[in-house]
């Protein structure tokens, strides 16, 4: 059976809890970043570029059989890790499932420092974009 | 001098600056973002507290005791600034909210009178946005043109191009004493001489310059010299506009309001004499008062011992940073201050800074408000480590070790 978004969120939180040291958490995040479903070059459009990030990050989304498929890229590897983490949890989901999440697991894994609007990696903007895609396709 | 003596001298200074003793993420703070803002000594913190706790009367306004005491502290700070920069008189020292406000004051008020259609404002390629945008706005208003003095590959001004760039049409030369990205002391004396030769006025952005070395505005003969308090160990929201009296007298006021007037009627207002003419509204009198202890602290840092320590840090970083594969330093020459901006091939600047932060090392990353310069290097950002006299050689070593580690992680 398919795991719910909530179960996946819990899994991520538990994985990060295995690394008490900050550097290890980031090392893991970088590793995840390398597994990111890469966006096709043609989808690196101005439209897919997320505003509010100091590093450039593109997030592409398309509907397939009622489910949202995400791909992304960034010129910063930590940003890539964060967006990969989001995609891992929210990819291949129905819009209503995505909108049922409060995205609170990010806070739990200790990336809340990235939640302030001015932070370079623009986590808030990424979450907003995922929600917007879900809302548009509802 | 041996290392132990140098370390001891730095430790004595560090004891006076409480923030340097804190930890981040459980690690001792290594604060290397001094070009953005400096940490404050206890004497500055005490002055601010003392002002808030017991001397909080509005400056220049009332006859009561609190207002009088505030005014004394405020004007004492003005004297301290006058002495620091060697101004001819205290009337030439104007308090602003920072470098940006000071430049905008000149770019607006001076330009409204002296910049005409067809005139030229010359800036360098390495200017901070604060010394570009106000002049673009002024040029738009006046119908004037902004002209740019390029820097060479090592970041030095192309002084050889001045004969072409500096002609009679140039009315204002607005350049930095030290670039906040390159960390090179610019040949401002020579620039001022040549600018004056064609009758141009010169504004020096001293935001970094005032922190690294002695400034004598009369010897320099610059027309304006501007800087911020918070980079010079004073309270945030303070700044200085130094201007020659004849310019300040000739300029119309920038902001209108209280404290800058002589008499006001609905028909006509006459203005207060300098420096109050440019200090409309209630200024940051508490912050301004902190300039006196901040300047005393800054002066205590100019010892040969601390200077030698800084030179060793520069030499160490010049050698060790280059050992990191793919690292390139921007801004090179004998006139270098302990400020290093660099890129590392294959690593994003923001990633490097994020990871260094988790090791307790605070550096700056990004465009550093110098987009034209950094874009010309072909980058979307750089990493910058900027040192103050209270930084130790051990902290420079921690930076280098940290960089080795994060570069390994990122590749």
Describe this structure in words.
The complex is a heterodimer of chains A (138) and B (411). The two termini of chain A are 23 Å apart. Chain A has 138 residues and is an alpha+beta fold. The mean pLDDT of chain A is 86. Chain A has a single domain (5-136), classed as Sufe protein. Chain: A (Alpha-Beta Complex), CATH 3.90.1010.10. The longest helix of chain A is centred in the middle third of the chain and has 14 residues, at 77-90. Chain A contains 6 helices and 2 strands; from the N terminus they run ααββαααα. Chain B is 39% helix and 17% strand. Chain B has helices at residues 3-14, 42-54, 65-85, 99-114, 133-142, 162-165, 188-197, 217-220, 245-250, 285-289, 291-300, 304-320, 349-358, 371-376, 393-410; strands at residues 23-24, 27-28, 30-31, 93-96, 120-124, 145-149, 170-176, 201-205, 224-228, 239-243, 261-264, 269-271, 327-330, 339-344, 361-362, 364-366, 382-386. By secondary structure, chain B is an alpha/beta fold. In chain B, α3 runs parallel beside α11 (291-300) and α13 packs across α15 (393-410). Chain B has 2 domains: 3-31 and 303-410, Alpha-Beta Complex (Aspartate Aminotransferase, domain 1); 46-298, Type I PLP-dependent aspartate aminotransferase-like (Major domain) (Aspartate Aminotransferase, domain 2). The chains are: A alpha+beta (138), B alpha/beta (411). The interface between A and B is medium-sized, with 15 and 16 residues.
């Amino acid at each position: 059976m398919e795991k719910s978004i909530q179960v996946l969120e819990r899994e991520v939180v538990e994985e990060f809890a295995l690394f008490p040291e900050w550097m290890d958490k980031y090392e893991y995040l970088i590793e995840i970043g390398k597994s990111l479903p890469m966006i096709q070059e043609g989808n690196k459009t101005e439209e897919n570029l997320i505003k509010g990030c100091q590093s450039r990050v593109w997030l592409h989304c398309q509907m397939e059989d009622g489910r949202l498929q995400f791909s992304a890229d960034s010129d910063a590897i930590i940003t890539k890790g964060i967006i990969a983490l989001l995609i891992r949890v929210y990819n291949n989901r129905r819009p209503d499932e995505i909108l049922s999440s409060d995205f609170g697991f990010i806070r739990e894994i200790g990336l809340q420092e990235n939640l302030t609007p001015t932070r370079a990696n623009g986590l808030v903007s990424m979450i907003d974009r995922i929600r917007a895609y879900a809302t548009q396709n509802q | 001098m041996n290392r132990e003596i140098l370390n001891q001298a730095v430790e004595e200074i560090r004891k006076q600056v409480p923030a340097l003793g804190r930890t981040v993420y459980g690690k001792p703070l290594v604060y290397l973002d001094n070009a953005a803002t400096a940490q404050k000594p206890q004497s500055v913190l005490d002055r601010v507290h003392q002002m808030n706790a017991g001397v909080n009367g509005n400056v220049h306004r009332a006859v009561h005791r609190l207002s009088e005491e505030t005014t004394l502290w405020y004007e004492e700070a003005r004297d301290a600034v006058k002495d620091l920069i060697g101004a001819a008189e205290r009337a030439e020292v104007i308090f602003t909210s920072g470098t940006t406000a000071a430049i905008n004051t000149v770019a607006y008020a001076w330009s409204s009178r002296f910049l005409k259609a067809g005139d030229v404002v010359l800036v360098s390629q390495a200017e901070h946005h604060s010394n570009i945008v106000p002049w673009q706005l002024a040029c738009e208003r006046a119908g004037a043109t902004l002209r740019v003095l390029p820097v060479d590959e090592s970041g030095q001004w192309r002084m050889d191009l001045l004969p072409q760039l500096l002609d009679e049409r140039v009315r204002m030369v607005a350049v930095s004493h030290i670039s906040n990205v390159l960390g090179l002391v610019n040949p401002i004396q020579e620039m001022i001489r040549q600018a004056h030769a064609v009758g141009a006025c010169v504004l020096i952005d001293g935001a970094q310059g005032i922190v690294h070395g002695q400034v004598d505005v009369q010897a320099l003969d610059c027309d304006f010299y501007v800087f911020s308090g918070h980079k010079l160990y004073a309270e945030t929201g303070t700044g200085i506009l130094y201007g020659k009296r004849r310019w300040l007298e000739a300029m119309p006021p920038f902001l209108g309001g209280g404290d800058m007037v002589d008499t006001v009627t609905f028909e006509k207002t006459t203005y207060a004499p300098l420096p109050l003419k440019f200090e409309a509204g209630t200024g940051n009198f508490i912050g301004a008062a902190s300039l006196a202890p901040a300047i005393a602290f800054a002066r205590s840092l100019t010892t040969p011992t601390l200077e030698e320590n800084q030179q060793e840090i520069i030499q160490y970083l010049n050698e060790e940073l280059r050992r990191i594969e793919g690292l390139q330093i921007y801004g090179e020459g004998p006139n270098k201050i302990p400020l290093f901006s660099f890129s590392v091939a294959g690593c994003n600047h923001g990633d490097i800074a994020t990871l260094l932060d988790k090791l307790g090392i605070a550096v700056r990353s990004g465009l550093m408000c110098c987009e034209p310069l950094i874009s010309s290097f072909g980058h979307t950002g750089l990493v910058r480590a900027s040192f103050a006299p209270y930084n130790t050689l051990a902290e420079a070593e921690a930076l280098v070790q940290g960089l080795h580690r994060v570069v390994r992680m990122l590749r």
